[in-house]
Amino acid sequence: MDNIILEMRGITKTFPGVKALDNVSFKVREGEIHALVGENGAGKSTLMKVLSGVYPAGTYDGEIYYDGEPRRFSTISDSEHLGIIIIHQELALVPLLSIAENIFLGNEIATNGVIHWPQTFARTQELLKKVGLSEPPATLITDIGVGKQQLVEIAKALSKKVRLLILDEPTASLNENDSDALLKLLMEFRTQGMTSIIISHKLNEIRKVADQITILRDGGTVETLDCQTEDIGEDRIIKGMVGRAMEDRYPPREPKIGETLLEVKNWNVFHQHHRDRQFLHDVNFTVRAGEVVGIAGLMGAGRTETAMSIFGKSWGHKITGDVLMRGKPVDVSTIPRAIDAGLAYVTEDRKQLGLVLINNIKENTTLSNLKAVASNGVIDDRKEVKVASDYRSKLRIRSHSIYQETVNLSGGNQQKVVLSKWLFTNPEVLILDEPTRGIDIGAKYEIYTIINQLAAEGKGILMISSEMPELLGTCDRIYVMNEGRIVAELSKAEASQESIMRAIMRSGEKH
Amino acid sequence: MVADTSNQANKPSIGDYLKNNIREYGLLVALVVIMLFFQFVTNGVLFRPVNITNLVLQNSFIVIMALGMLLIIVAGHIDLSVGSIVAFIGAISAIMLVKWGLPAIVVIPACLIVGGIMGAAQGYWVAYQKIPSFIVTLAGMLVFRGLTYVVLGGRPIGPFPKEFQLLSTGFVPDFLYFLNPKPDLIQNMVALVAVLALVGYAIYAGVRNRRVNEQHGSENEPFVFFAIQMAVIAVVALFIGYQLSTYRGLPNVLIAMGVLIALYTFVTTRSTVGRRIYAMGGNVKAAKLSGINTERLTFYTFINMGVLAALAGMIITARLNSATPKAGVGFELDVIAACFIGGASASGGVGKITGAVIGAFIMGVMNNGMSIMGIGIDYQQLIKGLVLLAAVFFDVYNKNKG
Questions:
Q1: Which of A137, A347, B193, B335 is a Cys-bridge partner for A100, taking CB atoms 3.0 to 4.6 Å apart?
Q2: Do A3 and A65 meet the contact criterion of CB atoms below 8 Å apart?
Q3: What is the average per-residue pLDDT within A328-333?
């Protein structure tokens, strides 16, 4: 059992401005199920992308040994050739092709480019049997549920003679029955000698199946726990995931909290696309003047959806509930009305949703409030230049001028432009969705400083973040969300990484 | 980590400036080179007063539609139906003027309104039902062409009353004849005075604009470029103005075109609506989340296109003095090509009115020049196609290099 199939040594991977992996070591024994855990952004997915050749050899430092030999994968097919198959969190299936077509996509059973259909269907039938799926091979992917799609992905992996199967959060979007079936399948594969690496947030599942657990934190390996030699409890895993010292990463602040600004009551929202599925259930929360309120939760907990459904109903469908500003109901049914009501929403994805990247700083700054620099529909260039220049110096945006295209700015400076845009609408409550994602530590500190200033000016801040230390370091109060519900409200004194994680895990087990 | 937060823009070097703006200067240079080339190979026919007048009349409707098309393309869409709108408007104007005998003063606004409704009918599907504009306007192209046949019963209608023909064949009367120093040479004094005044104002406005920019720390193009550009434009304009003044003067259409170009340049560069269209074309999701009503804006750009296509339709009908079912076939392609030659991006958010206008004139001069040379329509198409591809390749090449 101590035959090492995979060893990754000293893996370091840098993205512009961010060190995603720092000297990570990772060892997997043949025939085991190895769990990889860590907070969002700890580097789990990046590590697996390095392994599978998504990030080719040469773009990272360190060595990969597979079957005892050093390997340098420059494409995904290099690693697939050796039986390393990764199933990503977002399934890579073509919805309008059949199960059989998807399984053999790019790997068709064909002679001279002509597909051999009878053989394809026969092989598919065989593979589907192995994963316990009883759908006809000609069924379209779009017609089967997510759980079954996941099984198709695994069947696809099996078709490629998989030896090391990597699953990135395979059960994140599955219900309990489907999850159980999937985990059973993995255990069955283990008896046949297959090795699996599973990335998951669901610690109860990990305890059920894992032989070893490797914990990553902030792009480094914390420890590897062996479940066969000792009984590993969830608390033990959580401690490993979050146990970092709070350094001076957060500027100090004296909160001066005033009246309630924003109040959301009984907020129920159905899914944007799956229209009969309720996504948010009875969400209630408040934000007061001068207060920084956090929303913690895992990916898919419904935090962004909460924010976007409130901000002009820009996400979801069949939205019910009340939004009050200073105790008075307000109309937030369109984005312009939400802005008029005093809301601003800084999106999670600043490149896709926050900025018009081909436009310059000036144009982006005034976009949400063009009226304020125009009269009768004509833009007053001088006024606009002044506004943009003022925000540029106030938020310390580093650029050669306000005419620089925002596509050429660093992540931190782009985020400051988005903040400028929303500050110029003079909101009462700012919703900040992952405001420091993908920006370096120095710029993060500046963003926190801006947040503190805004709170000191009496604005209410609602901050969504997947980085728990960030929430603990900046917020006066933290709501915890899981599966579309607010499952806990923690004061600054009560909040800790352990208490947040515990709230999430406990609520997850209830449903 | 020293923050460079001063308002003073670092002065870019002349080389950098040229590199960053090569597209715009390149376009102007290309137009001048093409004009000189045809002037040479046609032995000076191109710039004869009568031919310049023809050039203006032949291209006015392409230029006018390019103004609307540029907005559509900048907004991230396309409109294939404009050629059919041209034909349909021609048909209904013929019915109203010739069959019903309505006065032009009623028919012209009525046609503009109908054009707007046709644009709205397509804009609704694009903006509110999210059907790709390519498909909606392809359907519109077929529907409006079919309607034209229905309305005309398959036969041309004409001729048109004189007052309507003035739309395209009229000239600004010479009310300044008493200033004319050389009546034997100059036929129309207004043309000369107007062009002189215009060039004078352009130089004055340009210089004033630079001074204002300097005071506010905004970017200015290097003086050399400014001077050369102004000189080229002034020389070309004065030359054309002089040539026109020795013939029949300024065509009405030229005035209408000039006013529209000025208006749309203003809208795209200075108005909130223009700014929002560019933002929407650059990133529709970000624009929407910034509180812009992107659906309504899209709807309006299609209405605007319909109105301009209607105007173009009336001008060409008046020029041909007949409404035919086949009028305007293939116009949409010339108009779209003009925008892309002028530097508009097929993915939206990028493009200038001046670019589209110059693009239209590049196409126009080539059409005209090649016709004078006696090159067949087959080779004309071939050459225009290659020019379009070359212009867009130039864009892509520059982008990848930078």
A1: A137
A2: no
A3: 94
The CA distance from A386 to A383, in Å, is: 5
Are the Cβ atoms of A336 and B291 closer than 8 angstroms?
Answer: yes
Pairing mode, if any, of strands A33-37 and A195-199?
A: parallel
| Residue B237 included in any domain | no
Instruction: Pick A74 or B184 by higher pLDDT.
Output: A74
Q: Does A374 touch chain B (CB under 8 A)?
A: yes
Average pLDDT over residues A220-235: 84
DSSP secondary-structure letter at B97?
I
A264 pairs with which residues across the strands? A285, A323
Looking at the structure, give the CATH architecture of the domain made up of residues A258-342+428-511: 3-Layer(aba) Sandwich (3.40)
What is the pLDDT, as a whole number, of residue B274? 95
Give residue-wise pLDDT tens across range A148-182. Answer: 898 999 999 899 889 999 998 888 777 777 888 88
Contact B291 A357 (CB under 8 A): no
B91 domain residue, yes or no: yes
Quote the pLDDT of residue B7.
40
Gap between the Cα atoms of A219 and A23, Å rounded: 8
Rounded to the nearest angstrom, the gap between the alpha carbon of residue A327 and the centroid of all alpha carbons in its chain is 33
Q: Which domain holds residue B305?
A: 21-170+251-401
CA dihedral A314, A316, A318, A324 (to 10 degrees): -50
Does A410 lie at the interface with B, CB-CB under 8 angstroms?
A: no
Q: What are B's interface residues with A at a Cβ cutoff of 8 A?
A: 1, 3-5, 7, 9-10, 212, 216-219, 270-273, 275-276, 278-279, 282-283, 285-293, 349-350
Please give the ipTM for the structure prediction.
0.84
Do B367 and B58 contact (CB within 8 A), yes or no? Answer: yes
In chain B, what residues touch A441 (CB-CB under 8 Å)?
none
CATH number assigned to the domain comprising residue B80: 1.10.3470
Closest chain A residue to B212 measured between Cα atoms?
A382
Residue numbers of chain B with a pLDDT score lower than 70: 1-14, 16, 19-20, 216-219, 401-402
Identify the pLDDT of residue A16: 66
With DSSP H G I counted as helix, E B as strand and the rest as coil, what are the percentages for chain B, rounded to 5? 75, 0, 25
**Rounded CA gap, B358 and B63, in Å?**
9
Name the closest residue on chain B to residue A394, using Cα atoms.
Answer: B5
Alpha-carbon span A165 to A33, nearest angstrom: 9
CATH number of A4-242: 3.40.50.300
B135: how many CB neighbours lie within 10 A of its CB?
Answer: 12
pLDDT at B249: 87
Q: Which residue ranges does chain A devote to CATH 3.40.50.300?
A: 4-242, 258-342+428-511
Say whether the peptide bond before residue B159 is cis (omega within 30 degrees of 0).
yes
Question: Beta strand A429-433 with A378-379: parallel, antiparallel or unpaired?
Answer: unpaired
Q: What is the pTM of this model?
A: 0.80
Query: Tokens 């914390």 appear where?
Result: A222
State the pLDDT at residue A45.
84
CA nearest to B347 within chain A: A358
Taking the C-alpha atoms of residue B86 and residue B89, their distance in angstroms, rounded to an integer, is: 5
CA dihedral of residues B21, B23, B29, B33 (deg, nearest 10): 160
Q: How far does chain B reach from its first CA to its final CA, in angstroms?
A: 26
Query: Higher confidence at residue A510 or residue A334?
Result: A334
A367 contact B CB<8A: yes
Q: What is the pLDDT of residue A508?
A: 66
- Indicate whether B154 belongs to any domain: yes
Domain membership of residue B226 (yes or no) is no
Give A-chain residues touching B282 at CB under 8 angstroms. Answer: 356-359
pLDDT per residue as tens digits for the range B17-41: 776 677 777 888 888 899 999 999 9
pLDDT band with cut points at 50, 70 and 90 for residue A196: very high
Taken as a whole, chain A contains a residue count of 511
